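Marked as duplicate of an earlier ticket. Keeping the data here for the record.
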Amino acid sequence: MSRSSKKGPFVDPNIVKKINTRKAQDGPIKTWSRASEISPEMVGYTFAVHNGKDFIEVRVTEEMVGHRLGEFSLTRKFVRHGGKIQKEIEQKAAESDKAEKTAKSTEKK
């Protein structure tokens, strides 16, 4: 459910204060406020957004305006599917790629 239009977008007041006092080149702005909506004033700044374990740096661009900071700082780490069999398949593919590259490099000489 979205926020009421009469209230306007939620931006943490501490973030607004830090944006007004800092320059974009001063380094990342550390924040725990994942629910803060990205406003046009934030474009060009780098934020260190907390994901529950550590801080992930997010550089704000124009396309991000209207989204939340938490959308760009993932809270879960994806581990590949497949297990042992998938690992063997990937090793064989890597070996064949190496063989192709060495064959191409010997042809050029």
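See parent ticket for discussion. The chain has a mean pLDDT of 88.
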